[in-house]
Amino acid sequence: MKPFRSRSLAEHIEKTVREGYERFASYIYSHLIPILKNDADAWDITQETFIRYFKYLSKGKEVEYPLTFLYRTSTRLAIKYLGRAHRKIEPVGDPPELLVESEQLRLEAWSVIKAIWGQLDPKGKIVAKMLVVDEMTPSEICQNSGFSQGSINRRIKKFQALAKKEAHIFHDLKNKAIRSATSGPQLIREGDENHE
What we know:
mainly alpha; Rna Polymerase Sigma Factor, Chain: A; Arc Repressor Mutant, subunit A; 70% helix
Protein backbone atom coordinates (compact mmCIF):
# COMPACT_ATOMS: atom_id res chain seq x y z
CA MET A 1 0.00 0.00 0.00
CA LYS A 2 1.34 3.41 -0.97
CA PRO A 3 1.70 6.07 1.72
CA PHE A 4 -1.12 8.58 1.94
CA ARG A 5 -0.68 11.85 0.09
CA SER A 6 -1.90 13.91 2.98
CA ARG A 7 -2.70 13.49 6.62
CA SER A 8 -6.24 14.82 6.14
CA LEU A 9 -6.97 12.22 3.44
CA ALA A 10 -5.76 9.43 5.74
CA GLU A 11 -7.92 10.76 8.57
CA HIS A 12 -10.91 11.05 6.25
CA ILE A 13 -10.54 7.43 5.07
CA GLU A 14 -10.09 6.18 8.63
CA LYS A 15 -13.19 8.09 9.75
CA THR A 16 -15.22 6.76 6.78
CA VAL A 17 -14.26 3.15 7.53
CA ARG A 18 -14.89 3.57 11.26
CA GLU A 19 -18.36 5.06 10.61
CA GLY A 20 -19.08 2.32 8.09
CA TYR A 21 -18.08 -0.31 10.62
CA GLU A 22 -20.32 1.21 13.29
CA ARG A 23 -23.28 1.36 10.89
CA PHE A 24 -22.91 -1.87 8.90
CA ALA A 25 -20.77 -4.44 10.77
CA SER A 26 -23.73 -6.12 12.46
CA TYR A 27 -25.62 -6.25 9.15
CA ILE A 28 -22.65 -7.85 7.35
CA TYR A 29 -22.16 -10.30 10.22
CA SER A 30 -25.83 -11.34 10.17
CA HIS A 31 -25.58 -11.80 6.39
CA LEU A 32 -22.56 -14.12 6.82
CA ILE A 33 -23.93 -16.36 9.59
CA PRO A 34 -26.31 -18.37 7.32
CA ILE A 35 -23.53 -18.75 4.75
CA LEU A 36 -20.65 -19.75 7.05
CA LYS A 37 -22.58 -21.43 9.88
CA ASN A 38 -19.86 -20.39 12.31
CA ASP A 39 -19.77 -17.36 14.58
CA ALA A 40 -15.98 -16.95 14.59
CA ASP A 41 -15.70 -17.33 10.81
CA ALA A 42 -18.49 -14.78 10.29
CA TRP A 43 -16.67 -12.23 12.49
CA ASP A 44 -13.35 -12.94 10.74
CA ILE A 45 -14.89 -12.36 7.31
CA THR A 46 -16.66 -9.24 8.61
CA GLN A 47 -13.31 -7.86 9.79
CA GLU A 48 -11.64 -8.79 6.48
CA THR A 49 -14.46 -7.05 4.59
CA PHE A 50 -13.72 -3.77 6.37
CA ILE A 51 -9.99 -4.19 5.80
CA ARG A 52 -10.75 -4.53 2.09
CA TYR A 53 -12.96 -1.45 2.29
CA PHE A 54 -10.07 0.50 3.88
CA LYS A 55 -7.59 -0.69 1.24
CA TYR A 56 -9.99 0.17 -1.58
CA LEU A 57 -10.51 3.71 -0.29
CA SER A 58 -6.75 4.06 0.32
CA LYS A 59 -6.17 3.61 -3.41
CA GLY A 60 -8.06 6.85 -3.97
CA LYS A 61 -11.22 5.13 -5.19
CA GLU A 62 -14.68 6.17 -4.13
CA VAL A 63 -17.59 4.00 -3.00
CA GLU A 64 -20.96 5.48 -3.87
CA TYR A 65 -23.00 2.80 -2.06
CA PRO A 66 -20.98 1.49 0.92
CA LEU A 67 -23.51 -1.15 2.01
CA THR A 68 -23.63 -2.66 -1.47
CA PHE A 69 -19.83 -2.69 -1.64
CA LEU A 70 -19.58 -4.33 1.79
CA TYR A 71 -22.33 -6.86 1.05
CA ARG A 72 -20.72 -7.89 -2.24
CA THR A 73 -17.22 -8.03 -0.76
CA SER A 74 -18.33 -10.11 2.24
CA THR A 75 -20.21 -12.56 0.01
CA ARG A 76 -17.20 -13.05 -2.25
CA LEU A 77 -14.86 -13.47 0.73
CA ALA A 78 -17.21 -16.03 2.32
CA ILE A 79 -17.43 -18.09 -0.88
CA LYS A 80 -13.67 -17.91 -1.32
CA TYR A 81 -13.14 -18.93 2.31
CA LEU A 82 -15.48 -21.91 1.99
CA GLY A 83 -13.79 -23.05 -1.20
CA ARG A 84 -10.31 -22.62 0.26
CA ALA A 85 -11.25 -24.53 3.40
CA HIS A 86 -12.75 -27.31 1.25
CA ARG A 87 -15.94 -27.08 3.22
CA LYS A 88 -19.41 -27.92 2.11
CA ILE A 89 -22.17 -25.61 3.14
CA GLU A 90 -24.34 -27.91 5.18
CA PRO A 91 -26.99 -26.36 7.34
CA VAL A 92 -26.16 -26.92 10.99
CA GLY A 93 -29.72 -26.22 11.96
CA ASP A 94 -32.69 -25.39 9.87
CA PRO A 95 -32.66 -23.16 6.81
CA PRO A 96 -33.51 -19.50 7.46
CA GLU A 97 -37.01 -19.14 8.81
CA LEU A 98 -39.67 -17.89 6.45
CA LEU A 99 -42.07 -15.18 7.39
CA VAL A 100 -45.48 -16.15 6.03
CA GLU A 101 -48.78 -14.75 7.28
CA SER A 102 -50.71 -18.00 7.58
CA GLU A 103 -49.29 -20.50 10.08
CA GLN A 104 -50.32 -23.45 7.87
CA LEU A 105 -48.66 -21.91 4.81
CA ARG A 106 -45.59 -21.14 6.87
CA LEU A 107 -45.32 -24.73 8.05
CA GLU A 108 -45.82 -26.11 4.55
CA ALA A 109 -43.29 -23.69 3.04
CA TRP A 110 -40.86 -24.48 5.85
CA SER A 111 -41.14 -28.22 5.15
CA VAL A 112 -40.51 -27.69 1.44
CA ILE A 113 -37.50 -25.38 1.95
CA LYS A 114 -36.02 -27.67 4.60
CA ALA A 115 -36.32 -30.66 2.26
CA ILE A 116 -34.52 -28.98 -0.67
CA TRP A 117 -31.90 -26.99 1.32
CA GLY A 118 -29.27 -29.74 1.03
CA GLN A 119 -29.76 -29.98 -2.75
CA LEU A 120 -28.66 -26.39 -3.36
CA ASP A 121 -25.06 -25.43 -4.14
CA PRO A 122 -23.37 -22.69 -2.04
CA LYS A 123 -24.40 -19.87 -4.38
CA GLY A 124 -27.89 -21.39 -4.63
CA LYS A 125 -28.27 -21.23 -0.86
CA ILE A 126 -27.18 -17.59 -0.83
CA VAL A 127 -29.60 -16.73 -3.66
CA ALA A 128 -32.42 -18.67 -1.97
CA LYS A 129 -31.79 -16.87 1.33
CA MET A 130 -31.76 -13.46 -0.34
CA LEU A 131 -34.86 -14.30 -2.39
CA VAL A 132 -36.99 -15.86 0.35
CA VAL A 133 -35.75 -14.43 3.65
CA ASP A 134 -34.47 -11.00 2.61
CA GLU A 135 -37.29 -10.74 -0.01
CA MET A 136 -34.94 -9.29 -2.63
CA THR A 137 -35.70 -9.15 -6.32
CA PRO A 138 -33.28 -10.85 -8.75
CA SER A 139 -31.83 -7.46 -9.71
CA GLU A 140 -31.29 -6.58 -6.01
CA ILE A 141 -29.61 -9.96 -5.50
CA CYS A 142 -27.35 -9.23 -8.48
CA GLN A 143 -26.44 -5.80 -7.12
CA ASN A 144 -25.78 -6.99 -3.58
CA SER A 145 -24.15 -10.37 -4.16
CA GLY A 146 -21.92 -9.65 -7.13
CA PHE A 147 -23.24 -12.76 -8.92
CA SER A 148 -24.14 -12.41 -12.59
CA GLN A 149 -27.80 -12.07 -13.54
CA GLY A 150 -27.60 -15.34 -15.51
CA SER A 151 -26.13 -17.18 -12.52
CA ILE A 152 -28.89 -15.84 -10.28
CA ASN A 153 -31.63 -16.72 -12.78
CA ARG A 154 -30.32 -20.31 -13.12
CA ARG A 155 -30.27 -20.77 -9.37
CA ILE A 156 -33.73 -19.27 -8.92
CA LYS A 157 -35.11 -21.63 -11.61
CA LYS A 158 -33.45 -24.61 -9.93
CA PHE A 159 -34.73 -23.48 -6.52
CA GLN A 160 -38.27 -23.06 -7.90
CA ALA A 161 -38.19 -26.42 -9.70
CA LEU A 162 -36.97 -28.24 -6.58
CA ALA A 163 -39.51 -26.43 -4.40
CA LYS A 164 -42.33 -27.22 -6.83
CA LYS A 165 -41.34 -30.89 -7.00
CA GLU A 166 -41.02 -31.10 -3.23
CA ALA A 167 -44.34 -29.28 -2.74
CA HIS A 168 -46.11 -31.87 -4.93
CA ILE A 169 -44.55 -34.72 -2.95
CA PHE A 170 -45.43 -32.97 0.31
CA HIS A 171 -49.06 -32.40 -0.76
CA ASP A 172 -49.42 -36.00 -2.02
CA LEU A 173 -48.16 -37.34 1.32
CA LYS A 174 -50.37 -34.92 3.23
CA ASN A 175 -53.44 -35.95 1.21
CA LYS A 176 -52.68 -39.65 1.79
CA ALA A 177 -52.33 -38.99 5.50
CA ILE A 178 -55.65 -37.10 5.56
CA ARG A 179 -57.40 -39.90 3.64
CA SER A 180 -56.05 -42.58 5.97
CA ALA A 181 -56.91 -40.51 9.04
CA THR A 182 -60.48 -39.88 7.89
CA SER A 183 -61.09 -43.46 6.84
CA GLY A 184 -59.55 -44.75 10.09
CA PRO A 185 -59.54 -48.37 11.15
CA GLN A 186 -62.67 -50.35 10.34
CA LEU A 187 -64.33 -51.02 13.69
CA ILE A 188 -67.71 -52.01 12.26
CA ARG A 189 -67.94 -55.58 11.01
CA GLU A 190 -69.50 -56.34 7.66
CA GLY A 191 -73.24 -56.58 7.89
CA ASP A 192 -73.31 -54.08 10.79
CA GLU A 193 -73.32 -50.95 8.58
CA ASN A 194 -76.75 -49.88 9.82
CA HIS A 195 -75.82 -50.38 13.48
CA GLU A 196 -75.15 -47.19 15.41
